[in-house]
Amino acid sequence: MSISIIGAGNVGQAIASALSRKGVQVFIGVTDPEKYRKAVLELGDQVSIGTVEDAIGASELVILAVPYSATESIAKSMENWSGKILVDATNPLAPALSGLAIGTTTSGAEQLAQHAVGARVVKAFNTTGAENMADSGYSSGVPFMPVCGDDADARQKVIALATMIGFDAVDCGDLSVARYLEPFAMVWIHMAIKLGMGRRFAFARLQR
Ligand SMILES: NC(=O)c1ccc[n+]([C@@H]2O[C@H](COP(=O)([O-])OP(=O)(O)OC[C@H]3O[C@@H](n4cnc5c(N)ncnc54)[C@H](OP(=O)(O)O)[C@@H]3O)[C@@H](O)[C@H]2O)c1
């Protein structure tokens, strides 16, 4: 099994390290692979780095872990994404974390789906901090990971991936639910950064 991740920042490295610890081959794609080669070496033998184009070509499932502003050009760099699941971990943040740049009647994920022709777009890994993606372990519960997308099989594959790295991954339905998941991410960001609670917490789901 191989997974590609575009972006080698907080989220890209966090997901790569968690997946590699589970024995998954990870191919990271960035515009300047040399800049990240040393950091990627430290993520383990399972992780390699190359260009964005090579990373997209390497796997059926590609996770976008870049600033939202970069998503459109990456989506358009492929004429046709048929056969690929494109996982959108981004949030369309306004400057200085002051809110979201778009929302309520659309979402970053839906915009991405319009640009990524043929891709099965799934929204996931956007609602919690990168530290929780690197290490989802809490003694008090299992961190919640909502997942949405229009293709049920693609959603299930992403749910399996998030479950593998320790999340309570939940099928939340079609891609338009990203209109709620992106603001939900702002709740975590607001609490962690604006309210000063720090980044060492996660949301969890209770059910009866
Ligand atoms: N940080 C979090 O806790 C967190 C949690 C959930 C979701 N998110 C979302 O996840 C996304 C990534 O966040 P982050 O904190 O990981 O950001 P980051 O640390 O700034 O990393 C962004 C990465 O994307 C790369 N990149 C930028 N433009 C690119 C392009 N056109 N093609 C390929 N790679 C490109 C950057 O490479 P260069 O260094 O070469 O520019 C960098 O490796 C954002 O949309 C953010 O809102 C973040």
Protein model, in words:
- This protein is of the alpha/beta class.
- The chain has one domain (2-194): 3-Layer(aba) Sandwich (Rossmann fold).
- The chain is 37% helix and 18% strand.
- It contains eight helices and eight strands; from the N terminus they run E-H-E-H-E-H-E-H-E-H-E-H-E-H-E-H.
- Strands 3-2-1-4-5-6-7-8 form an eight-stranded mixed β-sheet, sandwiched between helices.
- The longest helix has 17 residues, at 178-194.
- It is globular, with a radius of gyration of 16 Å.
- It starts with a strand and ends in a 14-residue tail after the last helix.
- The mean pLDDT is 97.
- The structure holds NADP nicotinamide-adenine-dinucleotide phosphate.
- The site of NADP nicotinamide-adenine-dinucleotide phosphate (NAP) has 26 residues, from helix 1 and helix 4.
Overview features:
208 residues; alpha/beta; Rossmann fold; eight-stranded mixed β-sheet; 8 helices; 8 strands; binds NADP nicotinamide-adenine-dinucleotide phosphate
Helices, strands, pairings?
Layout: E1 2-6, H1 10-21, E2 25-30, H2 33-41, E3 47-51, H3 52-58, E4 61-64, H4 71-76, E5 85-88, H5 108-115, E6 120-123, H6 130-134, E7 144-149, H7 152-164, E8 168-171, H8 178-194
Parallel strand pairs: 1-2, 1-4, 2-3, 4-5, 5-6, 7-8
Antiparallel strand pairs: 6-7
The chain binds NADP nicotinamide-adenine-dinucleotide phosphate.
